[in-house]
Amino acid sequence: MTTIHRWLLKYFKIQLWESIMLHMGVLSGEEFVEKYLDHNDSVTTIDKEHNYAVRPPTRHPIYENFRVKAFKALLSAAPSNYQLSALGELMYQLQCLWSWVRWDRLVNLVKEMQHSQSSESEDVTLFGAKITGGGSGGTVCVIGRNCLRSNEQIIEIQQRYKAATGFSPYVFEGSSPGAAKFGHLNIRLRSSSKEYCD
């Protein structure tokens, strides 16, 4: 995986990216096929009548790789408000990319709770939130101090969410040994549908 500045320097110099820049990140299938003939992907086809937004989906994994590496480095830093604020900011940055009303409502409730206190105050116990698993699971992860005040704020967010939506989100707390204790499952597709029906 490349770094952000290398990606910007290297790929914005080649013709494809110059073309994309001229088109505000959009390239027609016809232009692409005319210029590059093929995209070497046996699973998908290029529709010549379709305009493709190329830059955003290309940019996302590069920026996300940077955020993940920065997050990992920050986890090894000395515990402080600065560390937690930086971790929270990285979480909020990703949340800006993946958006859905229910998740946004929860993330915004965390932001409101966080910013209702002075940023220098010791009362600030929640620092960030984001969806997890690409949004497939409908789970929002919140980062905060391990203290009673954080728990109280999470309960308040849960109650405010329920008041607004009628649904009370389940709160997962702490961690577990996960796969280290549970192990893993092997899921195999049966060789024929007849076996599956028997």
UniProtKB/TrEMBL annotation:
InterPro entries: GHMP_kinase_C_sf (IPR036554). Coiled coil: none annotated. It comes from Anisodus acutangulus. Keywords: ATP-binding, Nucleotide-binding. PANTHER family: L-ARABINOKINASE-LIKE, MEVALONATE KINASE/GALACTOKINASE. One of its GO terms (molecular function) is ATP binding. The keyword Ubl conjugation does not apply. Signal peptide: none annotated. The keyword ATP-binding applies. One of its GO terms (biological process) is galactose metabolic process. SUPFAM superfamilies: GHMP Kinase, C-terminal domain (SSF55060). This is GHMP kinase C-terminal domain-containing protein. One of its GO terms (cellular component) is cytosol.
